[in-house]
Every structure is written in C-alpha cells, then in structure tokens.
Amino acid sequence: MTAQQVAPSTTAPEGGTHGYMSSKEEYLRRLKRIEGQARGLQNMVHDEKYCIDILTQVSAMTRALESVSLALLDDHMSHCVLEAATTGGEEAQVKLKEASDAIARLVRS
C-alpha cells in the first residue's frame, strides 16, 4: 500500500499519547471561547445587529479557529510525525500523508 492509499490513523501510537495532550487544557479553554463567540454571533443575528458588526465577529472567530488548527498541526508535526519518522516504515508514510492532507485542507479553507 502506498502513502497515497493509506487510511489516516485516528488513534495515538501504541501506548502513546496524542501530540496535543501537553496543551489539552489550553486547547479546551480556547475552544470554549470560540463556542462562546458562536453563541454571541447567534445572538447578534437574533438581535438584528448591523451586518458589518456580525462580519467582524465572524472574522474574529475564523482567526481563532485557524489559530487552534495551526497549533494542533504544529503539535502533530512535532510529536506524531517526528516520532513516526524516527521509527520509520509505513507508519512514517501514513503520518506524513496525514500532515500533508491536513495542510491542504487548511489552505483550501
């Protein structure tokens, strides 16, 4: 099976942890804040606030999500991909493909 055909892994390596675990509480804090921003946007629409004000908040929320995405990608690269590359073999190809696909998704969004 080539790296192009390998299904992405959704689990941590055998006996390992996900790369973001050392920052888990920080990620949860940031995501809860984004959740609050989403509720705020709903309220703004419900309260018929000015379009530009809503768009400004959408932009802020988008930047916050992008920031979380880039931090998670960095954690993935410095933990999961690095570990797999050090070990070598098919798992290294899988992790590199996952990272490449994730980068492509982020660039397209």
Helix content: over 70%
Shape: elongated
* Number of helical segments with 4 or more residues: 3
Number of strands: 0
Structural class: mainly alpha
- Average pLDDT works out at 86
Tell me the β content. under 5%
Note poorly predicted spans: 1-8
Alpha-carbon Rg, integer: 18 Å
Describe the structure.
By secondary structure, the chain is mostly helical. The protein contains 3 helices and no strands. Helix 1 runs antiparallel to helix 2 and helix 2 (51-87) runs antiparallel to helix 3. 6% of the residues are buried.
Task: Throw out a few tags for this protein.
109 residues; mainly alpha; 3 helices; elongated
Set out the fold topology:
Layout: H1 24-46, H2 51-87, H3 90-108
Helix pairs in contact: 1-2, 2-3
In short:
The protein is an all-alpha fold and 109 residues long. 72% of the residues lie in helices and 0% in strands.
